[in-house]
Write a structure and sequence with these properties.
This protein has helices at residues 16-37, 50-70, 75-93, 117-142, 154-179, 187-207, 224-242, 260-281, 288-309, 314-341; strands at residues 111-112, 115-116. By secondary structure, the protein is an all-alpha fold. It has one domain (16-341). The chain has a two-stranded antiparallel sheet with strand order 1-2.
Length: 362
């Protein structure tokens, strides 16, 4: 029997091409909504800017998913490409990685070889999770039948790549001229970014082995409420360690090179969280409701963090509170749908919901 886009029984078959397109467009829209609007970096009063960010955020996340699937790789490759994405965005598009003025990134401390190191780490991890991983995982939950297959053909993937490049150009031509006029990243920085991006792409798509199903331990995964709480707590800790809060110039209330300490703690914690989720998600009893718990806790907490870090006006705060309410409502509705469908997602080493990223012929 055919299933609909949410995995429930359907009375008649649905055109798979149409469903692929729906899933692709969902990911394109979710990426900027989650990473920009739900954080408050683009406040609700300026929500129209999401249209400008869709090419780089939406097409970027979609392109990463498509190339990883076509190469038969898994989440490690997605995360490496997400870091490459951040280098392109902040190093070449915004130029914030090296700018001494934009976003006050240079005042975060530890400006090493002309690079704003704490700013880079914070944004690399943020984009890896909230621009790429969370939108991909949410889209997989909404369209489980297409979880392990590309949404696009070769032509569509090429179009996504072109749109992502255009998105970088849009950033370069809009934000720096208005917020950082006169600054041009030094040529060695730009070339260094390009070399690093190429190295990460090669590592993600050629060096890392294809994904495989790892032997799973029979132990039960953590309870849903534990996953919601742990995910939310980890997200808030990440913000507290990585971003300046409460009027401070540097993250974690540090001064000077002392910022290297929370940077190290953040890196170690991120690796530990990934390893824990990889092992937990490989257990046979892991379901898509567990995946939703990880994603949902992170989503709510990241908007709470936005209230502290990003909100500047009462309107901004009200907007984020409304987004938190809508997020909770959406999580409840999706959880009920997944519980009714009773879709099991275990059986592979994936922390957020893609358990078998293998290419399939179209």
């Amino acid at each position: 029997m055919a299933t609909d886009s949410h995995g429930s029984a359907a009375a008649r078959p649905v055109d798979p091409g149409r469903r692929h397109r729906r899933a692709a467009w969902t990911l394109v829209v979710l990426a900027p909504l989650v990473s920009e609007l739900a954080l408050g970096s683009t406040p609700v009063r300026m929500a129209w800017l999401i249209l400008l960010w869709m090419p780089i955020y939406g097409a970027g996340a979609l392109l990463i998913r498509e190339v990883v699937l076509r190469r038969g790789r898994g989440w490690p490759s997605i995360l490496l490409l997400a870091i490459a994405y951040e280098i392109v965005e902040d190093g070449i598009g915004l130029q914030a990685l090296s700018s001494p003025r934009l976003y006050d990134a240079a005042s975060w401390g530890a400006r090493i070889l002309g690079i704003n190191a704490p700013y880079w780490e914070a944004n690399a991890l943020y984009h890896a999770v909230f621009t790429v991983s969370v939108p991909i995982a949410l889209t997989d939950l909404l369209f489980p039948a297409h979880r392990a297959r590309p949404y696009l053909g070769r032509t569509g993937t090429a179009v996504a790549a072109v749109m992502a490049v255009l998105g970088v150009a849009v950033l370069r031509l809009t934000v720096p001229p208005s917020q950082d006029p006169g600054y041009q990243a030094p040529l060695p920085v730009v070339l260094g970014c390009l070399v690093l991006v190429l190295a990460l792409v090669a590592l993600a798509l050629r060096v890392l082995p294809p994904t495989h199903t790892a032997p799973a331990k029979p132990a039960a995964p953590p309870r849903l409420v534990v996953l919601y709480g742990a995910s939310a707590t980890a997200t808030l800790v990440f913000f507290g360690l990585s971003f300046p809060v409460f009027g401070q110039q540097q993250p974690a209330f540090t001064h000077g090179l002392a910022v290297l300490v929370p940077m190290g703690v953040t890196a170690v914690t991120a690796i530990a969280c990934y390893r824990f989720l990889s092992r937990a998600a490989a257990r046979p009893a892991w379901t898509q409701r567990h995946t939703l718990a990880v994603v949902g806790g992170a989503l709510v907490a990241h908007s709470v963090g936005g209230l502290v870090i990003m909100a500047r006006t009462a309107v901004d705060r009200v907007g984020l509170v409304a987004i938190i309410g809508l997020t909770v409502l959406g999580l409840v509705v999706l959880d009920r749908r997944l519980r009714t469908a009773d879709i099991t997602g275990g059986g592979g080493p994936a922390p957020l919901g893609i358990h078998a990223l293998r290419s399939r012929p179209e």
